[in-house]
Specification:
Shape: rod-shaped
Strand order of the largest sheet: 1-2
Radius of gyration: 29 Å
Strand content: 5-15%
Number of strands: 2
Number of domains: 1
Structural class: mainly alpha
Helix content: 55-70%
Distance between the termini: 99 Å
Largest sheet: 2 strands, antiparallel
């Protein structure tokens, strides 16, 4: 006769193993989503920096209010004469 753990113990062991496996799979999905979002974030940052350069070419060194589009010239300390 084989020695076996109790039926309730086996059920608990199987349940815990299933939960751990499911959790590992969910972590994998989340890591994949994280990777995709970080890549998208990087692309958006590059696009923003390119657009900032285009705005700088058009308007010069300015600070733009993102709420209403108004802007002010930035005083460049290195251009001041002593």
């Amino acid at each position: 006769m084989k020695k076996q753990i109790k039926t309730e113990e086996l059920a608990k062991l199987q349940n815990l193993a299933t939960i751990i496996k499911t959790t590992q799979e969910q972590v994998g999905v989340l890591e994949t989503q994280k990777h995709v979002l970080l890549h998208k974030y990087d692309i958006l940052n590059q696009e923003l920096n390119k657009f900032k350069s285009e705005l700088q070419e058009t308007y010069g060194d300015v600070s733009i209010d993102i709420k209403d589009g108004s802007f002010k010239k930035i005083k460049n300390e290195s251009n001041k004469k002593d």
